[in-house]
Amino acid sequence: MDDATAGAARARLLLMADSGFPTGAFAHSWGLEWAVRDGQVTDAAGLAGWIREALRFGVAPLAGRAVARAAAATKTGRESAARELIRLSDEVASFQPSRDARAAGGQLGRSLLSAAAGALPALLRHPAHAAVSRAAAGRDDRLQHPVAWGFVGGALGIDTDALLQAFLLGTVRQWAQVAVRTVPIGQSEALAVTGALLADVAELARRIGQRPRPLASVAPGWDAAVLGHGELAARYFRS
Question: Averaged over 33-53, what is the pLDDT?
Answer without folding.
Answer: 97
